[in-house]
Structure prediction request, 612 residues.
Amino acid sequence: MDSFGAGMGEGPILGAVETGGTKIICAVGDIDGRITDRMTIPTDVPDVSVPKILEFFSDKDIDAIGIGAFGPIDVIPESENYGSIRKCERRGWSHYPLLRTICDGLGVPGDMDTDVNTACLGEYRYGAGKGAEVLLYITVGTGIGIGITIDGRPLHGMMHPEGGHVAAVRHPDDRFEGTCPFHGGCIEGLACGPAIKGRWGAEGKDLEDRPEVWEMEAHYLSQLVRNCMMTVAPNRIVMGGGVMQQTRLFPMIRQRVREQVNGYMDCPETSDMENYIVPSALGGDQALLGGFVLAHSALRGKGGIR
Amino acid sequence: MDSFGAGMGEGPILGAVETGGTKIICAVGDIDGRITDRMTIPTDVPDVSVPKILEFFSDKDIDAIGIGAFGPIDVIPESENYGSIRKCERRGWSHYPLLRTICDGLGVPGDMDTDVNTACLGEYRYGAGKGAEVLLYITVGTGIGIGITIDGRPLHGMMHPEGGHVAAVRHPDDRFEGTCPFHGGCIEGLACGPAIKGRWGAEGKDLEDRPEVWEMEAHYLSQLVRNCMMTVAPNRIVMGGGVMQQTRLFPMIRQRVREQVNGYMDCPETSDMENYIVPSALGGDQALLGGFVLAHSALRGKGGIR
Prediction:
């Protein structure tokens, strides 16, 4: 029996927060991946959103907290801004010390990573990426992001991966300029949800009978997958996010990746594409569950702050 | 004082082998990065080359050996083919058990990685990549390869990185079809040494007064750098290989990377490009020196075979 917490009988009570572009989700649970309580609020400026987060957890008796946040964020342990949002276009959030504010407000240790690295961690521990030494998670939604874990540890170098922003070889029929304010037609700029809407004039869910939409989407996403494969040779690739709810994309992406790689990476993994490029197994909760893993590590003094 | 070996007074005597497309280099040295003896032979079929390697080391009294080999190779510790060359187009080398043959032939433990991962390890320990948590090494020569170390440990997933084979956005003036037998116009196919020769009809060293050659080369190499940055956020990028002897490429690549990243990765590292994208500091010996690191680890039972 664990000495931390008592609320659920065994083990510590863990909190998780996922901050997204439109909503923030808070959850309470444990390291076995059970979620016992949750709350969703719209994303507002920090002075509005953060007090609501603190209020939600105020009577939950959590022992630690893990946060998966929209990037860019400071993930360098030696940095005095560890756990802060970096300069960004989201009103009020630039340089906001999110991790410190929440840990201090609740009086618990905690840790924070990008939403995608945290989702990757959730898939590694509980989901479709179990046991993958190098695991790649790709989210395709409002933006396109990648998370990488190596032996269950999120990858950070000078910062975190920002794999949606790689260069894109255009589809020959594509004249859309791209939505990315930094790079125009990077993979994110040409294949994220808003790019679909910008190019075709409707949301993906209203374009289900337009095969050219999905053909173009698969062109860009397969390119991203191929580039990541050549760069980090992941043992498995999990894809999630709103756009990937169009499950028809999976076979289309697998086929194009097979064609593009063209036998060059001839591994057991790539000979079984149906189990190599897979949907998230956690139904949208991957970042929250990864947050529990971050919280649990912070509680044990492995990473994070107190 | 170390208990291994005695030949150089202190510490074990280490052997290193670098197998390249045209030549094989063997070296003797120590973990301080001193090379005390070396031999270079042309690359032939294994039945010719490997006996010469074994003969060279036969009187060198080495305690362990590290090999940096042309890929693709089997780097999965659990594999029964660990340390073998994988299927390749090089006559005689497909499935050749290089590490096992050399370790058994010399009666010493050893380890093996790709030439580029091994070079990356050399730069991390002795060269231009000291202290870089995530270090990226890019070689541009007969092929284009990448190596990645994370905290000094070479990255492997289902196999090793093969970063030269990412998709390439073509230079608008480029009509060259590309040299890669797998992907045609991937970055390697459009920017390796043979691609320069195929496109312009001469070797790089005879094209020094043709600025359009280097402008196009920088276009492709900066794209590779940008994609790797977005994927693994390296703390430093070391570039080596024959083509990078054209040192004019460094400022051209830095400038284009700065333009392409466009402020998106705003880190201390990227604000000092001259110290972020740097030439190898080991004068061509980076893979041999990385071989010493592999040998030393194998001697201590960390990785490799006995």
